[in-house]
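Morning. Coffee machine broken again, so started the prediction first thing and wrote up yesterday's gels while waiting. Chain of 209 residues, entered below exactly as on the submission form.
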Amino acid sequence: MSKNYVWRALEAVTSKVYRCGHCGEKVASERGYSAMAIEDGIQIGSASQYYCHTCGLLTFFDADGKQIPGAKFGEDVRHISDSHVNSLYDEARLCCAANAFTGAVLCCRKLLMNIAVSKGATEGLRFIEYVEYLEAKNYTPPGSEDWVNHIRKKGNEATHEIQIMNKDDAEELIEFLEILLKFIYEFPERTKKRTQDKTTSPIMMPSKP
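Came back before lunch.
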């Protein structure tokens, strides 16, 4: 069975709140295109395309409500100093947006290894040795051992077993790694900047009566 869409001209459409898959901004758009979804000559639903008022690009929602391109899962993390770490985190989020959940889990496993190397671990170690390095150097928050082992377990399943990862598998790993990245990269830089701002602020002398 083939599915076709019969589109109407650009018009005001029912307002829809969504996160743009192009620029990542949360928008509420009322401008776009709407269509009837036709399958074997029978209308089975409707579809739409919305203009993002931030970047001006279109996002498509099919008859089942699937968004294309999907929005990256998770939040941006600032001050990641290692380009490989930053790229892998972004890739894992994009995999989720594309419903490539096994790929996202594999990225999360590789991301944990790259975090360890960026903080001084030797390349070529076994995965468990990278985990132990992060823990020994206090780069993992207290009480996070179970989560790190969970990433290891899921990564091993995706790598070595005939196992397909699902949406929950991928999203929970990205959520934890987002926290870990903020703990290792973002929060220390924010604290450093706040301290620098305080030390460089001019001292205000009391005015004479």
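The chain has two domains: 3-68, 83-187. Going to sketch it on the whiteboard this afternoon.
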